[in-house]
Amino acid sequence: MVIHERQPVLSGLHPQEPPGPRLPRAVKGALIGVVVGGVVVGGVLVLLPPVRHTVAPPPAPGPVARAMTAVGAGVSVALPDLAALIGDREAHLRAHPRDAQSWAVLGGAYVEQARRTATPAYFPKADKALRTSLQTTPRGNVEALDGLAELANARGDFQAARKWGEEALKQAPKRWTTYPLLIDAYTGLGDYKATRSTLEKLQALHSGPAVKASAARVYWDRGWREDAAASIADAAAAAATPPERAAFLQQAGELAWQRGDREQSLRYYEAALAADPDEHAALAGQGRALAALGRVSEALRAYQEALAGRPAPRYSLEMGELYEKLGLGGAARAQYDLLRERVRQAETGGVDDELVLGLFEADHGDPEEAVWRLRAEWSRHPGIPVADALGWALHRAGQDEEGLEFATKATDKDHGGGVRNALYAYHRGQIERDLGLDGPARRHLADALRVNPYFSPLLAPVAQEALTALGEPPDEGPPPEEPEPAVLPVAPVAPGTPRTPSKPVTPAPKHSAAR
């Protein structure tokens, strides 16, 4: 009889399930190692801190996106980014010519390119792009209206800028980017009440760096120098991009220069150029400050670089006057010829440079022509700078009494002026001196040198000479003594009579009997 050996039943195995095949010893060892290893690894993973899944930051915007954001907000943009945006929108519009928004973006980019490089040929292109946008979408197209207002400001046509800006606000009163455009337009038109009220509305809607920069300009024109400096410093600190920061630092440099701080203005200009080497206005400002510090060779190089990147007529005037101060008449005349040529080129792009041309003609050309040009400019844009320039041109043409009327408009708060500008004070002082008004002349010439002793390489020394020639004010002696107040007699009071307060006695008016 064969005795069968009983097989143990393993827990978890069905009783009827046949046993599996036997595994070789080596395979059994490998499996045991895997199991043990898994347990060990699992224990280690339990001890490790949990893995935190971090989301990668979004990629930085490219040049086209950066430029589109800046153009839409009305702030400065890097020139390479601007060129990329223009190329991108031009290519897009060749395939989609009915895209009104892209036409508006392209028009705004053309305006910025013209402004940054002083290339007037971009202005007609901007005008065509913006009007195409408006024709494609006539209603609700505030982007095109803003662009047209910005274009008009850049051309110096402040009446058109006001028209387009006010139309944009009618359609979108809460669009904050329109308000800085209107502030510039109202300032150019001499409507300082509207300028201030528009700034208040803007500040109620938005508080970013561009708003602070607009506020700084308005504060400066009102004579609030400390507020203006603080506001533009805040704008520069909060700027989102290097080109935007460079523009605000350049504006801070201008304010420092206007108050006669050569060193501080130079630091601001250098910081602006460190942020954006293509900020050509800062290069011209650097030339101005370096000349005032006696670093003439560096000043000339800065002006040359500024004119190479942005051939603005005003820079040619400043550089020509520096050459003239150095006794380099031929070099000065070359810059003055370039100034006239650049003004003519700007006219082809619809740019109004009559103000700088009028100042040039008054001092270095034909004063009668300056009067003719600036009278026409005053009829279009009766702002403080034009009042000053016209008053000076009239003086240079021998019409001092009318010249003083305009010089007074530029410098008296009662006439809308308020900014302390050394050049304006100098012009008024010289006109008063020629009219024999020695006291006011002395006061305004001294004020010019007190505000900014370096305001012009040519005119600041003349101001000092004129002030010296006027001499000290005459000694008028001590002020007359005030007469003793009359003592009115008091009626005697009987003893025991209660005293009642009497009405104050009003002295009789000091009028002469004869009228």
Note the total helix count. 24
Regarding quaternary structure, what we see is single chain
- The topology string of helices and strands comes to HHHHHHHHHHHHHHHHHHHHHHHH
| Outline type | globular
Structural class, by secondary structure, is: mainly alpha
Polypeptide structure, described:
With 515 residues, the protein is an all-alpha fold. The chain is 67% helix and 0% strand. It is built from 24 helices and no strands. The longest helix has 23 residues, at 25-47. Residues 1-21, 26-53 and 482-515 have low confidence and may be disordered.
Helices, strands, pairings?
Elements: H1 25-47, H2 63-73, H3 79-95, H4 100-117, H5 122-136, H6 142-155, H7 158-171, H8 178-188, H9 192-205, H10 209-221, H11 225-238, H12 242-258, H13 262-275, H14 280-292, H15 296-309, H16 313-325, H17 329-348, H18 354-364, H19 367-380, H20 384-396, H21 400-411, H22 422-434, H23 438-451, H24 459-470
Helix pairs in contact: 2-3, 2-4, 3-4, 4-5, 4-6, 5-6, 6-7, 6-8, 7-8, 8-9, 9-10, 10-11, 11-12, 12-13, 12-14, 13-14, 14-15, 15-16, 16-17, 18-19, 18-20, 19-20, 20-21, 20-22, 21-22, 22-23, 22-24, 23-24
Short note summarizing the structure:
With about 525 residues, the chain is an all-alpha fold. Helix content is about 65%, strand content about 0%.
Keywords:
single chain; 515 residues; mainly alpha; 0% strand; disordered N terminus
